[in-house]
Please model this.
Amino acid sequence: MKQGYTENNNKMQISEAQARRKRIDRYKAWIVRLFLAATIIPSIVSVFLICQVNRLEQEVLAISGAEGNDLTTLVSSGEALMSNPNVDMEALTGEEWNTLIEPDGLEPSAFPVGAESEKKRVYLTFDDGPSIYTGQILDILAANDVKATFFVIAREDESYWPYYTRIIEEGHTLGMHSYTHDYNEVYASLESFETDVNRLSEFLYERTGEYPTVYRFPGGSSNSVTNVSIEECIGYLNEEGITYYDWNALNGDAVTEELSTDKLIDNIMTSVRQNDTSVVLMHDIQSRHNTVESLQGLIDVLKEEGYEILPIDENTPLVQHVPYNTGFQEATD
Ligand SMILES: [Zn+2]
Model:
């Protein structure tokens, strides 16, 4: 009898121990599930939120970029420039140019949020080439892995033709700057302006197999040499899908006297330091060897001060002295 009781008691103890073990196993299983839930769910949520943040950042960039374009147009159009219609823009010294820029128009608060945290952008542009210096300019740019923009004219001398293709092949932007650069011819009438644009466009297509999509007016869009309405010329470019760019910084190399390399760099940097986006005017012409001489120094200073140097493309904010106004046709009718 006693033995039977003990046996029973033992069995009960065993089943209780089994039940306890089962409970413990269940708790363990729950702890593992809770642990997994506590780590995996937040991870999934984090990944989802990171994706959302990225997407929204892209949207903000797209929106602020668009506003940035408008602002840059406004800033660079500078009422100061417009109120000086008789100034020959292309022949200004860098200093004259810098006094024309109103610092008031460049208050950081005028720029969209986010723009300040981005790298400031600089677009180096060379007008009037190709010249005997184009090869040297391209070599310096290649050695520094810097891309620029060349607003060229048509050189009928075939020895210059390889430069047109080299500019494109080496990743630079080939822009137009009129066939002849002869103000009297280019701006004689709207018709002659249109003819000149088409002639250069075809000439460059024959040389390179590509039609250029950017243009710089000889003398700039704010020039005082044109006999035609610059707004009509702008309207024509717009119809042709061609975007024009002026500049908001220059080295002053178009003046009669050749400036020292230090002066050329100083002139540019004075403007560049005031702008979020700078389009820098320089000349690729035979009489301006110091522009080539100053190029390495300029690139060094720009890199040291943390600027991003880019070729003009479809994302470049518009820098125009006379902004294109879609309403001008009604206004002039
Ligand atoms: Zn020019």
